[in-house]
Amino acid sequence: MGLGRGPEGSVFQFDPVSPLVDSDDSTIRFWARRELLGERVGTVRDLWVSSPAQSLFRKQRPDGW
Question: Which of 5, 30, 55, 65 is buried deepest, with most CB atoms within 10 A?
Answer without folding.
Answer: 30
